[in-house]
UniProtKB/TrEMBL annotation:
Domain (GHMP kinase N-terminal) ranges: 95-182
Protein name: Galactokinase
Stated family: Belongs to the GHMP kinase family. GalK subfamily.
Phylogenetic lineage: Bacteria, Pseudomonadati, Pseudomonadota, Gammaproteobacteria, Aeromonadales
Domain Galactokinase N-terminal: 10-57
Protein's gene: galK
Positions annotated to bind substrate: E34, H35, T36, D37, Y223
Subcellular location: Cytoplasm
A Pfam entry, by short name: GalKase_gal_bdg
UniProt cross-references to PANTHER family, sorted A to Z: GALACTOKINASE-RELATED, MEVALONATE KINASE/GALACTOKINASE
NCBIfam families assigned: gal_kin, PRK05101.1
Length: 383
């Protein structure tokens, strides 16, 4: 059953009538541009065909009632007229409460809603299940309360909720692509200006995501540490953000900067250049160039940013051995486990999956899950 079917079925069973409307917001895969977003840099993600759906019913009071289908139908209920605080136990509730609290703080007038939520974005896999939930809730209130809010503002509001209510210091990439993605396109996003450029995905290019199924245990603390190191490096160089540094300035000014922060900065400066080059390579269908840039990106995440783990490096080696020059592969997302993304010719997909199924369990004692994805539209009403 799809998330759309699940939320509508449960809504009707629980409330005794059909939902008034239903919205969706996708997860994402980042093709290149990792840990650049909070350095005001560039990213190149696309929205994927895994999503969070919310069935919505209007209430005639100021209460919000939520049912989380994927959390054993747990429920939450709170009043829009009272201060909204984190839930004492249910972490999933905080993404919803945080989004609503921040919509109110932005001055939006909300009224009570019944919400039933379900999604199929793999959780904890680096495919932005949290951002898709934040954006789906923002979209639900936009549609149900006729809010004068742009898709970019829904994204910014979701990021604020995650930074200040949930407590993860993430950048803006995941919420922006979930809110603003376009079918059959990747989105080159300037995370400083929020300007976007749509890059068509070539017809003869497959997007294959391979989930390492490595639990991303350290991700929150390590993520926040990387961000602090990048900010310290920017202060050392006297720039607003690492986005403002080029390779020559990086080398010329490194005296006095600790080795780890220098290498973090080197990844970010190089990754911004690689991301811009990759957008051009994708738009001209230059797969060998794209593959080389993705390989450099992965090496920098492994050696300079130090966010990969052996099973992820192993998956990249196994897949690179199959696709050769005619494609690219790299870790995608925050790191410390999660997924790798491969861009390759569709006729190669079956061979790559077979190689992963043969070699990955033998080397790491783990099973990988493979998803062949399509670039999808960002958040909106379910059709
Ligand atoms: C996570 C964060 F949420 C993003 O903002 C981004 O920093 C990414 O890690 C790394 O590129 O998905």
């Amino acid at each position: 059953m799809t998330p759309f079917e699940r939320v509508n079925q449960l809504f009707e069973r629980h409330f005794g009538h059909a939902a008034t409307l239903c919205v969706r917001a996708p997860g994402r895969v980042n093709l290149i541009g990792e840990h650049t977003d909070y350095n005001d840099g560039f990213v190149l993600p696309c929205a994927i065909d895994y999503e969070t759906c919310v069935a919505v019913g209007l209430r005639d009071d100021n209460k919000v009632r939520v049912i989380a289908v994927d959390y054993a139908e747990q429920q939450d209920e709170f009043d829009l007229n009272a201060p909204i605080a984190p839930h004492p136990e249910q972490r999933w509730s905080d993404y919803i409460r945080g989004v609503i609290k921040h919509l109110q703080a932005r001055g939006h007038q909300l009224h009570g809603l019944d919400l039933v939520v379900s999604g199929n974005v793999p959780q904890g896999a680096g495919l932005s299940s949290s951002a898709s939930l934040e954006v789906a809730i923002g979209q639900a209130f936009k549609e149900a309360c006729n809010l004068p809010i742009s898709q970019a503002e829904i994204a910014l509001n979701g990021q604020e909720a995650e930074n200040h209510f949930v407590g993860c210091n993430c950048g803006i990439m995941d919420q922006m692509i979930s809110a603003c993605g376009k079918a059959n396109h990747a989105l080159l996003l300037d995370c400083r200006s929020l300007e976007t450029r749509l890059i068509p995905m070539p017809d003869d290019l497959a997007v294959l995501i391979i989930n390492s199924n490595v639990r991303r245990g350290l991700v929150d603390s390590e993520y926040n540490t990387r961000r602090a190191q990048c900010e310290a490096a920017a202060r050392h160089y006297g720039v607003k953000a690492l986005r403002d540094l080029d390779l020559a300035a990086l080398e010329a000014g490194k005296a006095g900067l600790d080795e780890a922060s220098y290498r973090r900065a080197r990844h970010v400066v190089g990754e911004n250049l690689r991301t811009l080059a990759a957008a051009d390579a994708l738009s001209t269908g230059d797969l060998p160039r794209l593959g080389a840039l993705m390989a450099q990106s992965h090496a920098a995440m492994r050696d300079d940013f130090e966010i990969t783990v052996p099973p992820i490096d192993g998956l990249v080696e196994i897949i690179k051995g199959e696709v050769g020059e005619a494609g690219g592969v790299r870790m995608t997302g925050g790191g410390f486990g999660g997924c790798v993304v491969a861009l390759l010719r569709p006729e190669k997909v079956a061979e790559v999956i077979a190689a992963v199924e043969r070699d990955y369990p033998a080397r790491f004692g783990l099973q990988a899950d493979c998803y062949v994805c399509q670039a999808k539209d960002g958040a909106g009403r379910c059709q």
